[in-house]
Backbone:
């Protein structure tokens, strides 16, 4: 076998094992009995030991020196393998194993602390996770910015300084739009009690309408919705609030966007380095365009209004237009995942600044809650009422996902660019969405982006799909046009 063939055989086995590790993580959040947590921690650490050994195998270095790419796909596989090998060989096996061991324990501690509203109970676990991830970032950065090193895991080819500059340009426009909206008349919210069984029936219909393949996936309930897996086994979760069905419906559509990307990658790339989404920012572009530009559009809301009437009977809102306004209602709230499109990125900017300070060592974990509460009040104009609505609301820090949060906002930016070209290419899209038919849009996204996986880098992936270099302008123009019309500004 050639060096390239040896690399690919090794990579396929490693990726298969990584998928098993991911399945264990899915199981922990959906099916695993709580009493199994300590054992699961050891199982995850043992599997990480095997994965780290494979990812740092000295043979990889020799093969990478000798390997020649047979074609464009081969060149992309080598790009990804070289990047991964360079990163993993800088992380000690002890550290990789300890991170895998502590993660299930820290996540359970977060779940308990969130339920009890007890920040102090979670702090020891948070401090351990910050210390371990900071050590990892420092090892990878080699004297550079440890936060940038961690962020590269989720969004290669960018830096926190570049992200901060983008946020600085967006922030004044977001704040101005929010203030104008909050000064206008607020449309009525949807009210009522919506049974779990009915919500889950509509949730499944939504997944099907957005192209989710249930032969290769399933929907379950979780505390924090997520998507897991790739190729022929991609699972999603959602959550149910009896008084807020939109929480369930739009969590489902969001996670279907992630899942569609993974299910849509060319099967020829399965279990290879490019057989997955290229970055979390690009991944979020899919979940956000599914959820917002398509799922919250006036046309699709008309179909969802009818579906909800069929399931639950008459609704509290007057008609389809009032339903659309309720779906896109801008109002006060604490929870990022429930935030409207206008304020969502302000939630991300808060988290980005705080987690960068934690990893850089300019903010201590003991001061995080106070820093969060102070920043939240400054940004949103009202005080956090309880930890579950503040510093304990997100799962990310409990599982060490430092550097992940900015990819949500980058995903919105990328989605804005994709939506601009999508609308130009599909001028009759609204007529189809009004029937609940997203096929033209989802097929367009698959043909332009999803099928290629990580064939190209993140920026090149978006540029190839939309025809221009991405920036925040299309997204901001979309927001301003949509909400100016909706709120008659």
Residues:
């Amino acid at each position: 076998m050639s060096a390239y063939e040896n690399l690919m055989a090794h990579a396929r086995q490693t990726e298969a094992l990584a998928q098993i590790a991911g399945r264990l993580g899915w199981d922990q959040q959906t099916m695993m009995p709580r009493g199994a947590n300590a054992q699961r921690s050891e199982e995850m650490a043992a599997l990480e030991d095997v994965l780290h050994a494979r990812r740092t195998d000295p043979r990889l270095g020799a093969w990478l020196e000798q390997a020649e790419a047979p074609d464009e796909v081969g060149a992309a596989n080598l790009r990804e393998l070289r990047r991964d090998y360079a990163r993993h060989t800088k992380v000690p096996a002890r550290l990789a194993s300890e991170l895998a061991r502590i993660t299930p324990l820290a996540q359970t501690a977060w779940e308990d602390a969130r339920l009890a509203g007890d920040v102090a109970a979670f702090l020891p676990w948070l401090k351990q996770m910050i210390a371990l991830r900071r050590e990892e970032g420092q090892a990878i950065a080699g004297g550079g910015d440890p936060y940038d090193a961690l962020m590269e895991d989720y969004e290669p080819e960018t830096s926190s300084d570049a992200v901060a500059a983008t946020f600085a340009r967006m922030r004044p426009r977001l704040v101005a739009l929010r203030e104008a909206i909050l000064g206008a008349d607020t449309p009525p919210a949807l009210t009522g009690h919506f049974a779990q069984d009915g919500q889950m029936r509509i949730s499944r219909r939504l997944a099907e309408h957005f192209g989710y393949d249930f032969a290769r996936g399933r929907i379950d309930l979780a505390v924090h919705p997520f998507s897991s897996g790739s190729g022929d086994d991609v699972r999603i979760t959602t959550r149910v609030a009896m008084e807020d069905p939109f929480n369930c419906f739009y969590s489902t559509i969001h996670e279907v966007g992630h899942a569609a990307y993974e299910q849509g990658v060319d099967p020829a790339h399965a279990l290879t380095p490019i057989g997955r989404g290229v970055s979390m920012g690009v991944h979020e572009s899919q979940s956000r365009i599914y959820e917002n530009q398509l799922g919250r559009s006036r046309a699709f809301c008309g179909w969802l209004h009818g579906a909800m009437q069929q399931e639950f009977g008459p609704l509290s809102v007057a008609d389809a237009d009032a339903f659309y306004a309720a779906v896109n209602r801008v109002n006060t709230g604490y929870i990022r995942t429930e935030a409207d499109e206008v304020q969502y990125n302000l939630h991300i900017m808060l988290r980005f600044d705080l987690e960068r300070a934690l990893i850089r060592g300019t903010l201590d974990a003991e001061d995080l809650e106070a820093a969060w509460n102070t920043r939240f009040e400054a940004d949103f104009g009202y005080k956090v009422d309880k930890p579950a609505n503040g510093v304990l609301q997100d799962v990310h820090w409990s599982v060490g996902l430092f550097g992940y949060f900015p990819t949500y906002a980058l995903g919105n930016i990328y989605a804005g660019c994709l939506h601009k070209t999508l609308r130009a290419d599909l001028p009759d899209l609204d007529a189809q969405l009004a029937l609940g038919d997203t096929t033209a849009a989802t097929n367009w996204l698959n043909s332009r982006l999803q099928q290629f996986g990580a064939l190209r880098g993140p920026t090149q992936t978006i540029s190839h799909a939309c025809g221009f270099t991405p920036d925040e302008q299309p997204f901001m123009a979309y927001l301003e046009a949509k909400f100016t019309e909706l709120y008659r500004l």
Q: What stands out?
A: The chain has 20 helices and three strands. The longest helix spans residues 3-30. The mean pLDDT is 96. Residues 160-487 form a domain with the Neurolysin; domain 3 fold (CATH 1.10.1370.30).
